[in-house]
């Protein structure tokens, strides 16, 4: 099955700095890569996703990049704010497949 | 729309007891999932369903059972609870086969003592 690895496990940045979280996947057939944000004690919620026919996608301060050849994708958050503090999960899945495989999560701490 | 609703939010079980975690969605999604989240870890898939009457095992199914008699409901049954089942359980649903957004319930925090 698919194996998704995520780094780093914790990340601490100063408010206003950028944060980058990286994931690798093992199944070359994976073609959908969502990112979820989980605030303390709450449910994971989708913040951005990317499909394999696209190399980059942006939504205001967040962006995701995908390198299919290297089988890795990254989440970029610019101008970080304290409310960005949360655990972020990457995931991978593919067509004709019914499962999301999640990374182990990155705890982001944005210091004011 | 309520989205995905889980009950209960918290539960303490004694070793050997059984319980059912309830999950219901009102988005008419065919795909439903049960995940467990251990402290500091990612989400591990327990069971999933692609429609009423169809279920299949995920990565960590031992000690659990599921059923899917309707599109809306996907209960998770724990038989003979063990301390290793102490975790936060999330139910989720999606419109299509793992290639569209998964919507999560608010979670059930289960402690087995």
Task: Give the low-confidence spans of chain B.
Answer: none
* Unreliable runs of chain A: none
**Order of SSEs of chain A:** EEEEEEEEEEE
- Major sheet size, sense and barrel closure of chain A: 6 strands, mixed
Q: How much is the radius of gyration of chain A in Å?
A: 13 Å
| Structural class by secondary-structure content of chain B | mainly beta
Measure the end-to-end span of chain A: 41 Å
> How much of the sequence of chain A is in beta strands?
over 45%
Average pLDDT taken over every residue of chain B: 93
Shape of chain A: globular
Describe the structure.
Chain A has 112 residues and is an all-beta fold. Chain A has no helices and eleven strands. The mean pLDDT of chain A is 93. Chain A starts with a strand and ends with a strand. In chain A, β9 and β10 form a beta hairpin. In chain A, the strands form two sheets. In chain A, strands 2, 4, 5, 9, 10 and 11 form a six-stranded mixed β-sheet that branches. Chain A has a five-stranded antiparallel β-sheet with strand order 1-3-8-7-6, with no helix packed on it. Chain B is mainly β and 113 residues long. Chain B is built from no helices and eleven strands. In chain B, strands 2, 4, 5, 6, 9, 10 and 11 form a seven-stranded mixed β-sheet that branches. In chain B, strands 1-3-8-7 form a four-stranded antiparallel β-sheet, with no helix packed on it. The model of chain B has no long low-confidence stretch (mean pLDDT 93). Classes of the chains: A mainly beta (112), B mainly beta (113).
């Amino acid at each position: 099955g698919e194996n998704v690895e995520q780094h780093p496990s914790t990340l601490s940045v100063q408010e206003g700095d950028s944060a980058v979280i990286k994931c690798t996947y093992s199944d070359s057939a994976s073609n959908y890569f969502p990112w979820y944000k989980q605030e303390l004690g709450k449910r994971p919620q989708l913040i951005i996703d990317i499909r394999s026919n696209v190399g980059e996608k942006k939504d205001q301060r967040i962006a995701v990049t995908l390198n299919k050849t290297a089988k890795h994708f990254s989440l970029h958050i610019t101008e970080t704010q304290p409310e960005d503090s949360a655990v972020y999960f990457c995931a991978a899945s593919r067509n004709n497949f019914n499962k999301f495989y999640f990374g182990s999560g990155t705890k982001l701490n944005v210091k004011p | 729309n309520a989205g995905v609703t889980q009950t209960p939010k918290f539960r303490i079980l004694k070793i050997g007891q059984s319980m059912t975690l309830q999950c219901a969605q009102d988005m008419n999604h065919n795909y439903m999932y049960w995940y467990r989240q251990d402290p500091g870890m990612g989400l591990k898939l327990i069971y999933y369903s692609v429609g009423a009457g169809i279920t299949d095992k995920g990565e960590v199914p031992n000690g659990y059972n599921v059923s899917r008699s309707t599109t809306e409901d996907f209960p998770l049954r724990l038989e003979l609870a063990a301390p290793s089942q102490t975790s936060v359980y999330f139910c989720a649903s999606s419109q299509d086969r793992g290639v569209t957004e998964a919507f999560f319930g608010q979670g059930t925090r289960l402690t087995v003592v």
